[in-house]
Design a protein that fits this description.
The protein is an all-alpha fold. Helices cover 55% and strands 0% of the residues. It contains 4 helices and no strands. The longest helix is centred in the last third of the chain and has 15 residues. The radius of gyration is 34 Å and the shape is elongated. The termini are far apart.
């Protein structure tokens, strides 16, 4: 009788040590559902760069967009420090 109880206790106790891991499974399923083309990483396509003229146009327009215009510089006026 004593050994029967020991078997029951060990069986119930070892059920908590079962290697069942569902941690992160929902995230993996959600990411797989969002993938449009699962084979996209295996496709090798050559990189095409910009030609020099096009690169110059793009960089010049980018620089112009960062610098303030004449009206903005005139509107700013003289900076004032308040102490």
């Amino acid at each position: 009788m004593r050994s029967a109880w020991l078997v029951v206790v060990l069986t119930i106790g070892s059920a908590g040590c079962a290697p069942v891991s569902t941690f992160g499974q929902a995230t993996r399923v959600a990411l797989r559902a969002q993938t449009i083309d699962p084979e996209a990483g295996s496709k090798k396509t050559p990189d095409e760069g910009l030609n020099p003229e096009e690169a110059a146009i793009v960089s010049e327009s980018y620089r112009r967009s960062l610098s303030p215009s004449r009206t903005e510089r005139a509107a700013r006026g003289t900076p004032v420090v308040i102490m």
